[in-house]
UniProtKB/TrEMBL annotation:
<feature type="signal peptide">
    <location>
        <begin position="1"/>
        <end position="21"/>
    </location>
</feature>
<keyword id="KW-0732">Signal</keyword>
<protein>
    <submittedName>
        <fullName>Uncharacterized protein</fullName>
    </submittedName>
</protein>
Amino acid sequence: MMLPKAAWLLTCWLWHTAVEATTPRPLPTFPVSMADHGEVFLVIPEGPRALGTPGYFRSQGGISEGSLPAPDAETAAEWQRLRNIRPDDSEDSIDFEDLSLVLMNLLPDEAAARRQAWMMLDQRRQPAQAERVWIFRIATGPNVWLGEWQDILGNPMSMSRALGGLPWSQIINFTEMDGSNADVRNLFETLTERDPVVPPVVATMELSWMNNDDYDAAWQNYGSVRGIPHRVFDAPEGMTRMEMARDLMALVTSSRVVPDAQRRQELRELLDWDIDAEPGRDFPLLRHGQPTTLEAAALSRIPWGQVQIPANIQLALASGLITVGQCGTALRQIRDAVNKGPKGKRGVVW
């Protein structure tokens, strides 16, 4: 039986559309390779309502700068806007703020992270950027790429960027710099405008680090990726920048970067990105969060730097990830301090 011409044309169009939608583009041809495993750092100022704390990022499934400035509905709308950006809609040199949901700049070592954290807290700047700043130590993986950039003077410099975000299992540990801490506050009080922007003592300041219980040691099997051009998002030919980002994720999870099939599958599970199993996978990268308890969220908003309890307990309380055991220790410490009371006065009994 012969199909009517209109039905035949419709059938052909549907077949063509299906093939076009399911046929993946060839992988980018950049000469990529994987570096040895290492560590990188990220500094995040804490915002209102515990925004930017470890507990907040755990609830989001990991760290993504794109989730910081907007509620979920606004973030979703921004994703849609970015998906529709095409090269002829903007200047040849991309404004990287438009890729804040895809790209994150990372720091190469703890020394650089300390310097950046201090500058965010510096009360000589009016106003200071934050009262508390979090430093995250991150295991490298193929979602982190290494590149050579130039500073404002044209000098070469190395920098790492994360593509899509950082799954929470990729965070090794974290610490904080708290502007309300007595030692930090006393240091600020002794500084003048003539002192260095970052005093030498910042490099040796004692910081208490808290391990991430959700860190997956399988990340140690991977390193950063080399060979992706710095200007890869500058007007990619024939596609949106979001499509280019998807192609890069396909590349770094492919056999070109991880030849061993078992390791490659492990990486795809770590990143929750497998285009063979899920051809339509798209950003945002982070999809599975872990809710923060109401108690931990409330405790994280108290200025614990002003309370005489051990630094590691202060850190756990402020992070929003305190355990039951740590919470009990904190309560006993506070109770003992209150019961002692000022000299010559009877303490308060809890």
